[in-house]
């Protein structure tokens, strides 16, 4: 398509002239050739110095060594300063040390905010004070934390020495001691390597709890009070813990008792339901037995109403119980009630083993045989003695043969009733 463009536009797409070639000014690094190739150091060994003439190597100081050196130098400087100050220290010629040394009390560990008037109020309880000198720094002018109190009487100083040690002033417990610079020979202050006396040697690891006071009962009472307070707090904490444990145990017991009560209620409801079902079942069985007994009574009444049994009873002759006593009327000793009991007994026996059922069946058969024999004998006796009654029970003239026939027929599906000669069904097994 570009061939159809006009010449002025085609000139825009025309290529430029090629770049002219210019030769390089020098050779490239890989094209250069070294006139002197690399060589070893063997030609220069003769220029080295002799190791025997070399100085020994210098060893640099480590950080630990430098710190130890500085500490040692500091100790040495301090010892020199202490020796210099000891030569110049003379407490008896000190212009700041005024008054009687045996009436002066030294008080240390004082709060920096405590004023001279506050110290006076605290220590005037032991006696009248003559002078209080609080020590200040010469460079900054701030208090150094200790002071000297001069009493008017020596006994007041002794009283303060015994009772004021450990007293809390402005939140800090002060340390009380006598002025030992002018009273104890050879004693030095702490800045010169000394201390506050034999009972004030320094920190808690070397210092005893109480100073060598004559009356230490107050400190003992304070310690006992502190110990009692600590024991009381521990006992209260233990009581709180025990109370919390009892509370948790009681909650657990209540929770378990509630669960047991709930379970017991559920079981009682289940037992009551089971009892109700069993009661309904028994009542239904009793109703069923009563219904069956009523039906059996109706059958017995309907079967013997028109026979020969009614005539002797109406005529006042011999009673109609010729047959076995177990099959007479519904009101006899072996009537439907006895049959119902036999059925219940047989139902219970059905759950036993086959051997027990066979044994019970044989026992019942022997019992029925005996009942039949007694009924046959009674029927024959009445037939012999009551011939004028005109009773026809179907067993006259049978004698022993009739008894044998009755006993033989009993072993089958039923037995022959002597009252009317009908074949009666045996009791269900």
From TrEMBL:
SUPFAM superfamilies given in the database record: RNA-binding domain, RBD
Tree of life domain: Eukaryota
Boundaries of every RRM domain copy: 103-181
Keywords: Nucleus, Ribonucleoprotein, RNA-binding
Coiled-coil spans in chain: none
Regions of compositional bias (Gly residues) in chain numbering: 192-201, 385-400
Region (Disordered): 48-79, 187-429
Stretches with biased composition (Basic residues): 246-259
InterPro entries: Nucleotide-bd_a/b_plait_sf, RBD_domain_sf, RRM_dom, snRNP70_RRM, U1_U11-U12_snRNP_70-35kDa, U1snRNP70_N
Compartment(s) of residence: Nucleus
Pfam entry (one): U1snRNP70_N
GO cellular component: ribonucleoprotein complex
UniProt xrefs under PANTHER family: U1 SMALL NUCLEAR RIBONUCLEOPROTEIN 70 KD, U1 SMALL NUCLEAR RIBONUCLEOPROTEIN 70 KDA
Annotated protein name in UniProt: U1 small nuclear ribonucleoprotein 70 kDa
Organism name: Ceratotherium simum simum (Southern white rhinoceros)
Classification lineage: Eukaryota, Metazoa, Chordata, Craniata, Vertebrata
